Structure formats: structure tokens, C-alpha cells
Amino acid sequence: MEPRIQYAKTADGVSIAFWTIGKGMPLVHMPIDLPLSHIQLEWQDPALRRWYECLAEQRMVVRFDGRGTGLSERDVTDYSLENCLLDLQAVADRTGSERFALFAPSNCGLVAVTYAARHPERVSHLILWCGFARASDNMTSTRMRAMEALLQVDWNAATETWARIMVGDADDTKARVAAAFMRVSISPETLRAGIEALREVDVSPLLPLVRAPTLVLWRRQIPGWDVQRLARELASGIPDARLTMLEGTLSTPWDDMEPVLNAIDEFLEDSEPVPAGAEQHAASSVCTILFTDVEGSTALTERLGDAKAREVLRNHERITREALRAHGGAEVKAMGDGFMASFSSATRALECAIAMQRAFAAHDDEHPETPIRVRIGLNAGEPIAEDEDLFGTAVNMAARIAAQAQGGQILASDVVRQLVAGKGFLFSDHGEIPLKGFDQPMRLYEVHSQT
User: Fold this and answer.
1) How far is CA 387 from CA 330, 378, 384, in A?
2) Would you place residue 181 in the very low, low, confident or very high pLDDT band (cuts 50, 70, 90)?
3) What proportions of the chain, in percent to the nearest 5, are helix, strand and coil?
4) How far is the C-alpha of 150 from the C-alpha of 382, rounded, in Å?
5) Is the pLDDT of residue 362 over 80?
6) C-alpha distances in angstroms, 14 versus 62, 84, 195, 351?
7) What residues contact residue 44 under an 8 Å CB cut-off, 6+ apart?
């Protein structure tokens, strides 16, 4: 009997088709690739059906079609990473899965890593099948370039190329079936839009923020990719991730599935899940660091004298502390003409930074003779906590970012930008900027207020 097709509604109003089978711990199985899926046709394929049934022997499997594909709403134009996250969120909420394991094949790993980094309280385990940290690692493979070129001129040839990538060159019958599946699952226009939306996605900065136990699975002999490099980079970037290399040339987990299922079952049984209080736990390890620094404080003292300059700096301290209290920030230390603070939420950290700059601007309007021009810099990471202070690379980088800002400006690292993507913040790209003490330049973004 086929699973019952149900629908979940996303925050932007898109209907997402899904089904569930089995009982127990939820395992949300993302589409077999982005953007490509058809949950009804997949169930009618004996190999795929057997794959889902085996996964569901010990748990509840949740499977859904992404927007624009399969049985989900097709009349959609935006296939961005942020909207893919909305699809996943809607299905998890609709099924009542407060906490769940997440299985993500191929491009879906980009979505899964982003979701796990932003929502550590929801993801108990993360399983990445043939995944990578940068979409470009997939887009630049020889076969993907060939498929993209064909997609512009010959839909049938493009689907046959994709089918060869998925099932291998040796089985003509399976390749023809896979190509037909693709043509039913998605339109060429949607496929082009989906590829273009994902082309520049890079989740490398988010890998260290993933708190869920993670299993990275690859097959050693898959042609067209530098398997060893992709697997190593993904597994080494996620804290304590487990890497398992399997034998074989096929990128589909349901072909020669026994070793894959054994690795998944062993991982889910042996690894400790993220506890129910994961949000509070994560706040003590991964956090967003904010630095403030009064621009020209030495010159201010020389111009105004010690007493008057100290009065101005007290206003800076008052405004900063009021904003920290209002937005849940923890003051780590005051440094005369600056502060260091930490936040469990990147969203609240940016809201606080914007509130500070608004308050400083209001002060300057009232006291134009003694303006307070403050630089603010933000970074997210896992600092070392010791003696009520924070240390480490994440902290040093936040301080260096603040030093790059001008008075009245907020600069943030790329990881902060990615953590709050889709939350309504406005960023402008300042490019890659050398930071003192760091070998590689860092891409920085200015944060703008919407009002």
C-alpha cells in the first residue's frame, strides 16, 4: 500500500507534499537531489521503495517533495536556499517532529547543514550522503557541466545525462527509467532556476556551528568528483563528525544499500543525540561575539579633557548596557572605550547592534558638540570560556572586524550573515579584507537598518 500523501504549508504559502511510514524516532529524508523529487513515483520504484521500507523498520521516515517538484506546488519561481529551508521547516512542523534525525543526499546537504547550524534544538542527528560544503564543487564536475550545457538545448539529452550520473553508465534500462522519472518530476525551467539559485551557496562557515552528531557517507569510486577531498573537507569541518567511506561507483544510496543501511543504523544507535535542552547547551559553546569601540577616543580626551571625555564615555557605556539588557546580550568585559559581549542568538546580536547605533545617532542629534561614533564588529563561533572571559579565534576575529569598521558602522562576518539569512536583515558586501593576525582575508558585510 502506498503511503498517504499529505501537505504542509510553508511560511511563504507554498504547499509541500509529504508522506510518513514507520514508527519511532523521526528521520526526515530530504529529496534525492535538489531540485528533483517525486515521492509517489519513487514509491513505485522497487529499489527505492525497499530503501524507504528498510529505513522505516526502526523509525518513522518522513519524505517530502521540494517546491516546484513532484507533487508539491509547481507554480513557484524562487528556489533559493532560504526557501528550501522553509520547505523543510514546514514538513517538520506539520508532522509534529520537534526533534528529528536528518538524512540529506547530495545538494540537499547544503540545506541540511544550514538548518542544523541555525536550529541545533531541532536536529538530533545529521547524515550527509555524498555531500559537499560548496555547490560549486558539484557544479564544476565534468558531467554536471555537460548536463547544464545540454539543458539549454535538449531536455531529453539533459535528463539522460543526469540519469547516467545517478545510476552509472552500464545499465541502459535503469538509465532510461531514471531519465523518464526526471522529466515527470520537474520542468526544464524549474531545473534551470534551481541550479542557478544554488550555484553560489557555500556553507563552509557554518560547518563548525553544527552541534548534532554527524555522519558523512561517500562511495570511494564515484566518477567525476574528487571524492576524497570533498568527504574530508566536509567531515573535518563539522566538530566530531564521523566519516565512512564505502566501496562502489554509484551516487544513489539505494543501490547496494546494505552497507549504507548498516552505517546509518550503527550511527543512530551509537551516537548520543542532541539533548532536549540543546538550545541552552549550544549557547554555552557556540555564540555570537560583539565588540564596540569608540572611534577617536584618544583624540576625544585631548580635545575635551579627562573629565568631559569620561562623561561622554559614560554615555557610551549606558547606551551599550541598555541595549545589551534589552536584547539578551551578556557583557563579557568593558575596556574603557569599548565592550565585548556575547549572544546565544545571532539574530539578537544584530538587533542589538542596530539598536545601539540608533541610540548613538539619537544621542549625537541631541549633543552635536560631543558625538559618540562607535564601531561595531560581530563574529560567531565557539570561543573558550575561562575566568568569566572568552578567548580564541572567534573572539579575535570579532575584535579585528570591529577595528575595520568606521564610526556608526556595523560589520559582520559571513558566518553571522548566513546564520540570520532570511530574517530580514540588510547586508552589503565589503569584499575580502585582510585582518591582522589572520593568514587569509575575510569576507565582511556591512549591516544596515531597514528604517
Assistant:
1) 15, 22, 10
2) confident
3) 45, 20, 35
4) 44
5) yes
6) 18, 11, 19, 28
7) 2
pLDDT, average across residues 161-169: 69
Residue 406 to residue 261: CA distance in whole angstroms? 54
Pick the closest to residue 125 from 270, 277, 19, 20 (CA basis): 270
pLDDT of residue 278: 42
Half-sphere exposure of 202 (CA within 13 A, CB side): 10
Which residue intervals of the chain bear CATH 3.30.70.1230?
284-448
Nearest to 360 by CA among 412, 288, 428, 292: 292
Instruction: Provide the pLDDT confidence category of residue 112 given band limits of 50, 70 and 90.
Output: very high
Write the pLDDT tens digit of every residue in 292-326: 988 877 776 777 777 777 777 888 899 999 999 99
Contact indicator for 411, 446 with CB cutoff of 8 Å: yes
Give which of 222, 14, 262 is closest to 130, Cα–Cα. 222
236 closest CA partner among 214, 218, 253, 219:
214
Specify the residue for cell string 561575539. Answer: 289
Mean pLDDT value across the chain: 88
Task: Tally DSSP H helices, then E strands, for the chain.
Answer: 17, 17
pTM confidence score: 0.76
Comma-separated ranges of CATH 3.40.50.1820 domains in the chain: 6-278
Strand-pair category, 389-391 with 287-294: unpaired
Q: Which residues partner with 333 through β-bridges?
A: 340
As its CATH architecture, domain 6-278 has 3-Layer(aba) Sandwich (3.40)
d(CA 74, CA 111) in angstroms, rounded, equals 20
284-448 CATH: 3.30.70.1230
